[in-house]
Every structure is written in C-alpha cells, then in structure tokens.
Write a structure and sequence with these properties.
Blueprint lengths: L11 H5 L2 H4 L8 E4 L3 E5 L2 H8 L5 E2 L6 H11 L12 H9 L5 H6 L1 H15 L4 E3 H6 L1 H11 L6 H13 L11 H23 L5 H12 L4 H32 L1 H9 L4 H11 L6 E5 L3 E3 L2 E3 L3 E5 L1 H4 L34 H18 L4 E2 L7 E2 L8 E3 L1 E3 L2
Parallel strand pairs: 2-8
Antiparallel strand pairs: 1-2, 3-5, 4-12, 5-8, 6-7, 9-12, 10-11
C-alpha cells in the first residue's frame, strides 16, 4: 500500500472513490499540507472525536476561509447558523431550533413519510426499472422538509434545483468566484422564504416556520436574519444528507447481494443496516474546523488559522477502531460511527434521517422483491460536492 498522501477534493476521480486515499492517513499524526491554504487532514477516529468535542480550540466559523466565507455571505448574508457558529451563539440557536426535532415530533412524521414513499414508488412501478435517485431518494426528503416548513411539497423540484446549484458550489476551487447559477439560486431561495416568513406573520399555521416566527416575534430569541438563515439551512441540510443516505445505502446493498438478501430475510436488521450504510459510505465526507492558537493533535503541531479537515468518512473506516472497516456488514455491532458528527454540532436531524432512510429501504424492498443493480450498468456518477457525497443517478432492475 502506498504511503504517499493524495488529497484533492476538486479531482473528480478522487471524489468518485476517496476511501483508498484515506488509507495512508491512518496510524500517523494528522497530515499537514498547503493546498491554496494551510490544511491539516484528520482521518483517525480518536483524533476526530477529540477535535469534534473541543469547540474552544477548534472553531466552527468558516470566515477565515475565503471560499467558505463567500458561500456563507451569499446564502446566509452573514447571519449566524447552528452549523457555522460556536457557543454562546450556537447554544442559543440549537436550543431554539431543536424543538423541531424532538423524538415525539419525529415519530409523528412516520405515517406521512410512509404515505409519501408509497406514492413515489407507485409512480415508479410502471417503469422498466427504478432510478432510485429521481424516483425516491431525491423527492422524499425534500417533500418531508417542505411539509414541515409549511410550503407546498409539489414545489420540491424547484427546491431541489436551488439546492443542487448551491451544493455544487462546494466544488469551486479556492480563489475562484462562486458560479452565477449558485448566486442566483441563493438569491431566489432567500427571496422565497423571506416572503413565506412574512406571510406567516399575518397568517400563522401549525408548521415550523410559523413556530419560529412566533418565537422571534415574542421573545426575540431568533433575529430576523437568523430565522431566514435557519429555514434555508434546514431545507438544504434536511434533504441533501437523507437523499445521499438512501442513494449510497442502496448502492452498498446492490454491491453486496449477500447483505441485501440477509436484510430481505430479516427486516428486523433494518436499524443496524442503516447504521452500517452511514458508516460505510456516509452522506457527509468531512467537516471543517479552524484553530486560532497552536494546538497539538495526535502528535502533530497545528499552527494557528489552519483549515482542519475532520474526515468523518475516513474516521468511519479507521482500522484502529473498526474491524474489517472496508467490509459492508449490516450485522456490525457496536457501530459508533461519526456520520452525523459528534459533540455540540451533532446533527439535529439525525433521527429524522434515520427514520426516512429506514422507511425508504423497507418499502422499496417489499415493493420490489427482486430489486438489484442493473447488470452491465456504467459506474455510478456522483454529484459535484466532496463534502456532501451523493449519487446523481442510480438505476436498479426490478424484475
């Protein structure tokens, strides 16, 4: 095995299968390199956990990086978000917006998620095969989030268009301006939700936007800009990660027919299967932190203002923590992966993503008992983002 480190998220071949490139990062201190800016690559599980739990030394604000700063300004107009902030701001925001993801609220969504899934698969049933991304993985999460926000689910294609243009900006090389399509999508998305928020002030409903408007108007706990930023973040994060979970998970099942048959024969394995999908090929490859003082991690001294890449998907295959890390095993237990992060930034919507994924797999496997990868199909194609790893298309045979 080569010990030479290659890391280039702007390389299409690298993005298509980054896992072999993580292997030289294991069993050694974080790798330091200068690629447009000073970076540290962290793929070891223990080092990743240390950083994710140390928000005092490792900051979540992206404003020290020009590319990320432009993305934030374009999309959030400088407003703080729960994802890109630290205490005390992050604590205040998370406490308020976590009300949308209480266990009861998530459980209450299950009947509607099942209904949407059945409807989508009914539409796909008459085709020669199933294109899992367009037929199920893409529309399901967008429609669920849209309904939570109280906006028409039938507009999911418009939401998805905006989301795709914004996510693709992750592949903008440092120093290059964001594409005009990204800027226009962000402008249109902000305008749409600004109008929706204003409409809720005069005609509130029982949706999440109305609840957040009330919280803003009554207590000033959430500023107007923060409210708009959170609604936008929820639409983006709430659909991209679950879409990628369903697509990546279905690909893993298709490439491991023994595990697919095991799951068919024992549906009670579904919760563990979803956890293994998240570990094996998670929807988020990495998250970024910045240190403002010199820090030592795993034997490496990281200089101030370094861009620390915490490679979650790499940590999930660290052989020092997981046995047989490159094997897809739906019976794996324990499975304490980092697919949803860790520490104070642990994903708010993790329970909802797990529920949507489990329902999607359950109903698809019941509906199509011979569901499998289409023989001879070309290698799957991935979308442009390194951070949000997901397929653009995945065709499956159903008969």
């Amino acid at each position: 095995m080569s010990t030479e480190v290659y890391f280039n998220p702007w390389d299409e071949a690298f993005r298509a299968n980054p896992y072999p490139y993580y292997k030289p990062l294991y069993g050694r201190p974080p790798h330091l390199l200068n690629m447009f800016y000073q970076m540290a690559l962290v793929a070891g599980y223990d080092d990743a956990v240390t950083i994710l739990h140390d928000h005092e030394r490792f900051n979540s604000s992206q404003k020290t990086n020009p590319t990320f700063d432009e993305q934030e300004r374009t999309l959030f107009a400088g407003a703080a978000t729960v994802l890109f902030s630290d205490p005390p701001t992050q604590t205040r925001l998370r406490k308020l917006v976590s009300r949308a993801f209480t266990p009861k609220r998530v459980r209450d969504l299950e009947p509607r998620i099942r209904e949407i899934t059945h409807t989508l698969l009914d539409r796909a049933a008459g085709k020669n095969g199933l294109e899992i991304m367009g037929d199920l993985a893409t529309p399901l999460p967008v429609m669920v989030i849209a309904e939570m926000l109280g906006v028409p689910a039938v507009q999911y294609e418009q939401f998805k268009h905006w989301s795709d243009r914004i996510v693709e900006s992750d592949n903008t090389p440092p120093g290059m301006p964001l594409p005009d399509a990204t800027k226009q999508a962000a402008k249109d998305l902000r305008s749409y939700f600004a109008n929706e928020i204003e409409r809720r002030r005069g005609d509130p409903g029982d949706d999440l936007v109305s609840a957040l408007v009330a919280a803003h108007d009554e207590t000033e706990a959430l500023s107007a800009d923060e409210l708009l930023a959170f609604v936008i973040l929820l639409l983006l994060a709430g659909n991209e990660t679950t879409t990628n979970l369903i697509g990546n998970g279905m690909l893993a099942l298709g490439r491991n027919p023994d595990q697919l048959e095991l799951l068919r024969g024992n549906p009670l394995l579904m919760p563990r299967a979803v956890e293994e999908m998240l570990r094996y090929d998670g929807p988020v490859q990495a998250t970024v932190r910045h240190n403002h003082v010199p820090v030592e991690v795993g034997g490496a001294l990281i200089a101030p203002e370094t861009m620390v890449f915490v490679i979650l998907a790499g940590a999930n295959r660290d052989p020092a923590h997981f046995s047989r890390p490159d094997e897809f095993d739906i019976t794996r237990e324990p499975n304490d992966h980092l697919a949803f992060g860790d520490g104070i930034h642990y994903c708010l919507g993790a329970a909802l993503a797990r529920l949507e994924g489990a329902i999607a797999f359950e109903i698809a496997l019941e509906r199509f008992p011979r569901l499998r990868l289409t023989p001879g199909e070309a290698p799957p194609k991935y979308k442009g983002s390194y951070f949000l790893r997901g397929l653009s298309e995945l065709r499956l045979a159903v008969s």
